[in-house]
């Protein structure tokens, strides 16, 4: 793990020095626990970046809600902080030879918090309910599932419509509900008073304010150290920083521009961990001068990725040579790019006969990529230094995302991809298969390799990833730029391990 922890002394008047930040959305949870009280070590208050849409795990599966569901429900398997897989509700899983059939063996004696036993039938119900609802946010994760059946009380079999070696990772995102309880209550009532088999149960739900959880004293697994968790939506980076400094929050994700302000503070420690995402330039290799692979190569060679990561992003990122981050299954450090070579870029442009035709450069001015405008302007500067003219087209995140989905870019564009499964299959589908939002090249070879990796396992699968990612670089279909870090501010006594996906699973967290 590549974690940077900062604990330094701050002078008096920190809040004033930080610009008089005001708290927003940090109140409401466990109001009888004051910062510094004797029982403070038995409760964690954590900030969610946005408010989840629903507490119904059949309908809801957006990333932010997983920080709640990981505590209150069981999934068949779990993705750990470093991106590896470990057992959860299922104690083991196996596949047939062509990975079109997967069997999961469940732990026995698992009870929901209301006493209902969780068996294979509950798993079948949860998956079939999602498969029956194309509007479910989880539906896409099950696109490979043809059917699911219970072989006995502790064994579930999934039949897939095509080979899929990474299928267990998709199950880490699907929470299991007690079928009888869910059906008796109905979806809407269940979302207001959810029942799961996780290490915590819901104490109260105050939408937009707090999701308060208490330890499940009858939990079937290892009991968590912390008695209660309050997950509170706090949308502002500044408010999350201020919340940790004031003691109203114990841990919160913060933006890269806030890390510097936290470096010398006794009230907080800072964790910076490489994320599971890559920020990259997408390239419409079928448009205008970008049809020439020499010009595409020149774009990559013109950009000093290390300078962007070290200077502009203050060391809170690492240069990327591949379209997968190191934490993601499928990543290989053997994949190479051309590095920073502006002289070679200039030479390639001359060889291609490039005469300064303007290339559209689209980017979002806010949203998913911190400092996106500054990153785009820095890239513009590097490109212009070697003689590449760009037309800058900044837009809000929603408009930019719509253009991604509709494949409306005619030149290059700034984008990012962070797979929720921490596996390369999801981004490769989007980058290289025919229906992928980012696949302008429509190269049959990339589609072939993207499908091939699903039917093989182990080193054979890793070899396919390496071939595909290197082939992509060699053809200039994308320019991987950098892997950003997830940054968290936390109480100085919190023994916290950040996850590569930026989500919370505090079930093994405690105060020192």
TrEMBL record:
InterPro entries listed in its UniProt record: Peptide/Ni-bd, SBP_5, SBP_5_dom
Lineage summary: Bacteria, Bacillati, Actinomycetota, Actinomycetes, Micrococcales
Keyword Signal: yes
Keywords: Signal
Pfam families, A to Z: SBP_bac_5
Name by which UniProt lists this protein: ABC transporter substrate-binding protein
Gene3D superfamilies: Dipeptide-binding Protein, Domain 3 (3.10.105.10), Periplasmic binding protein-like II (3.40.190.10)
The Solute-binding protein family domain, residue ranges: 85-438
Signal peptide range in chain numbering: 1-29
